[in-house]
Amino acid sequence: MRIYQVELDSDLWLHERRGKVTGTKAKGMGYQARNKTKRYAEFYKVLAEKMSIAADGEDVRDRGHRLEKEAVGRLVRERSLDLEPEPGMWISDIDEDIAVSPDAYERVTEERPLPTWAIEVKALASEHHLRFILQHRELIKRPDYNPIMSVPCEQEHNYKDQAVQYFVVNEKLDMLYFVLYDDRIVFDHLVMLVIEIRREDVADLVRQQTAVEFEALSEINKLVKQLTEEHRADVANQKRVGRHERRSRGARNKGRWDA
Questions:
Q1: CATH architecture observed for domain 55-201
Q2: pLDDT tens per residue across span 21-44
Q3: What single string gives the DSSP state of each residue in 70-134?
Q4: Entry pTM
Q5: Less crowded by CB within 10 Å, the N or C end of the chain?
Q6: Are 170 and 118 in contact (CB under 8 A)?
């Protein structure tokens, strides 16, 4: 062992801790107790510290918007895609309360009024970005592999339903490019992962999700009607009470005047 003299909490101290298994990270170096095939988050944090530059304090939302444009631009160049310059929200023809907001999609023309492909970008923290890439590499080895399996689907990062929603809303959509992008990763081949999801990959999920949304919206609309009727009844009752109080005050005042 050697002792390295450095001021606690200084920039140099923080730099020297990157990529090292410290006391606070040690508990997460093994496999998860309930699943011996999965690692704890600290494992991927150390990996990411070795494979990426440190975050510079950029606002998460600002970074997401910046990388969304960067990822779309890179994918469009690499795949020679014809991009719609002014994307907008998609609203379903089946129900106007079913919608999705794509990050990017195919250019719309008179001959092709609906896009056949779209892009959804996720710019995650480096430890999560690398974790999902490694998970993807393991998943594609499975004989029953379906691209939707590679879309993160866990409590903190749950994007499967969002991906399926593209196909629910746009009946002409054939392909969704689901992109993980992190410009902090030092090796270019790990900066971007593109998961290509075709309609046939999610056909059953599209039917299920559509049915779920119809049922939910039906119940929501019933509740909106019920609560609106309650509000109107309450307003009408307040008006009746107000008229009664005004008549009562008028009668009392008339009695005083007559006296």
A1: Alpha-Beta Complex (3.90)
A2: 565 665 665 666 777 677 767 888
A3: HHHHHHHHHHT--B-SS---EE-SS-TT-EE--SEEBPP-SS--S-SEEEEEE---HHHHHHHHH
A4: 0.83
A5: N
A6: yes
